[in-house]
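Q: For a teaching session next week I want to show students how multiple molecules come together into a single three-dimensional assembly. I've collected the sequence lines for a complex. Could you give me the predicted structure tokens for the whole thing so I can convert them for display?
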Amino acid sequence: MGGFLLRKAGAALIVVVCSSMIVFAGVRALPGDPAIALSGENNDPAVIAAVRQKYGLDKPLPEQYVKWIWHAVQGDLGVDSRDLSVAHTIVTRIPITLELAGLSVLLGILIGITSGVIAAVRRGKPSDHAATTFALVGLSLPHFWLGLMMIILFAVDLGWLPSSGYVSFGSSPVQNLEHMVMPVVVLGTGLSAVLMRQMRSSMLSSLGADYVRTARAKGLSEVSVIGKHALRNSLITVTTVIGLQLGALISGAVITEQIFVIPGFGRLTLEAIQQRDYTLLQGVVLVTATGYVVVNLLVDVAYSLLNPRIRVTGSAP
Amino acid sequence: MRGSFRRFALLALGLVLAGALTAAVAAARGTKTAAPQIKNGGTLTIGLAEEPDALDPTLARTFVGRMVFLATCEKLYDLDSHLNIVPQLAAALPQVSKDKLTYTIKLRSGLKFNDGTAFDAAAVKSTLERYLTFKGSVRASEISPIKSVDAPNATTVILHLSAPYSPLTAQLADRAGMILSPKAIASEGSSFATNPICVGAFTVKDRVAGDHITLVKSPYYYDKAKVHLASIVFKIMTDPSSRTQAMRAGDIQVEDRIQSTDVPTLQKDNTVSVLKAVTIGYQGLTLNIGNKKGVGKGYANVGTPLAKSQYLRTAFDVALDRTTINKVVFGGLNLPDCYPIAPVSPWYKPTTAGLQCNLHANDALAKSLVKASGFDNPTVHLMLGGTDPVNARLGQVIQSMEKAVGINVTVQPTEFTTSLNSATAGSFDAYAVGWSGRVDPDGNIFGFVATPGTLNYAGYSNSKLDYILNGARKSVTTKARDTLYRAAMQIIHRDRPLIYLYHPIYYYAVSKKVTGVQIFGDGLIRAQFAGYTQ
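A: Of course. Below is the structure for the complete assembly, covering every listed component.
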């Protein structure tokens, strides 16, 4: 087990180092000189030179990279164009996006799985048509449009919810939820639609399977047949889909955070790109890449615990 | 008997009329003086269109940053509603020596910084020296003629200049005139932006990057009675639609620069007042005449039809219908014009007198000028300083107008920062870009058309114009400067290194529950003395 973990951790480290190089090179491949973007309107050569010097842009690329990565491993990602610590900014932004994404997944699961089961069990009936229509609409609506419509209805016309912003759960749980309702619905709608379709399809397949027929023949109640047998098997596929949808959810969070003015990680990435803030952008992308690598490492470890053959062969048979 | 009745009737009539007149006057006075009562306390939330950069005036570059500074960092001089320079921390306008090399500034006494330390001449000296010497200072070039600063006593500062420089007072009415607490400079050093301390009605309480900046009322401010709000929150809301919806929902009380499509909606909203400000900025087309190797690297004609022929540049301008551009591209919400100085500036009339601004196209004249240029069906590559729909529309409208007179325009929408790179390098024929504007005419002209100008993307070099613009920098009297800038405008108007299209009009929304928010021609939201009505 120890050797397996060391191998995996070593591989993850190599991936992180490679990612950091790609991040570094990718950020510099963006068109437009960041020194000009950050030096203000006057295009003053002295200021541009000072900006280059301040952010080390006047040094050769390998030297810039080594300096940046050396500080990064010590937790220092530098200061951004606002003269604020990049590491501190990232640390304060990540929990906000995680909360948004987490609540959206919960909503997606709640609506998607419930409506998917109902649609499958009541196939061809009005509730099936209603759920299928909901899924179609949910998949078709762009986030920005749905977000704006919800703001106009619930914040402007009805005045029930705040139109935008974020209040942390720690400072006011009620206000936190009030601010999160609309963004979570916007982000969760698409996911629930995907899950509903997947759930319906899996359930239909399960309900027609031999083991369900056998369960019914044994005289089990319909609730038991659906809940204990069909649903449990159908959830395996749906769980995989949820995992695959997480990436799309994080991307969707960029737009949702922009519309609802939520100071999350997605909006931070967008701002860093728009402002050509190299230091901030490098930090954001490096943290994202490292996050993916760490999650993958954890998944590998989890698989190996669940299936010991992975440790021996390196892959499941 | 009849006579006494008549006298009684006349007396009665007189009394009635006098009473009616008194009542009318009282009513009229009541209408005029019924200013809304402002209550103390409350938080004003302002939705900003962009995020301010460093909150250190030494390093600050952004337009929105100046809005935060208005409430937190007062300056030696300020602007009044007519954009005249007036004293703020200074007690009077500077006294300029005969050789124009010494500026004596008297300061107000008894003022305190927001850390409780005294504001005095020594603080002004240390701040200006920081601006001149701090590594990466954006202010250094703005006040570079200052050779040294003396503080002979607590209320007098003497600036010694290396060369006469008339725009200095205007510079001291912007960020270069913001005075920092010496104690804070000493304790914060290069981290001053995280805890900026100046003289101001408010002081920075906290900043969450990308989200908000919170200011709280200062206990040390010299004019506390005028400050009604307990706090001001600058909320960063870069999406214009979200900003407008937040305004309509009442989540913010002031909306920074409404997008043109939202103006009618907010004008119909009876809970909101829409304020507008004709700004001192402009939008124009820079024509590349001599920028072959890059700005500041020596200019020689680039050899394109537009660069070679003054006739063609004039034709390009005459073919533009500024009124139609404003209607089609901006819904009529900007102010079409032909000059770098805006009509709201006191410099506008004296410097543009005698010049003719054609707001409508003259296709016949433009065609004859194209013919006179000797170029048959010339092509111009127009680079747009943005890839948004408004820029795209501007490019298309210009393209169609020029096509009507025989000039082919190819439109190149370019991301803004990339466009600045291309403009600096000289990789363009024409470049559609704007300028936020400065109070002093020098700030709108010198940098763009003088040979050493850092924004001279056109690569334009004219020794006569350089001589005039340098003369205007050295002249102290308004009359002399008027004359020189008028002469400069005539040359620019003739040679057309830049074609000016319009002055932006910015629209702002303010909740009707709030009073005292002011917008001047500089486009900044002044909210430090605002408050909620009772």
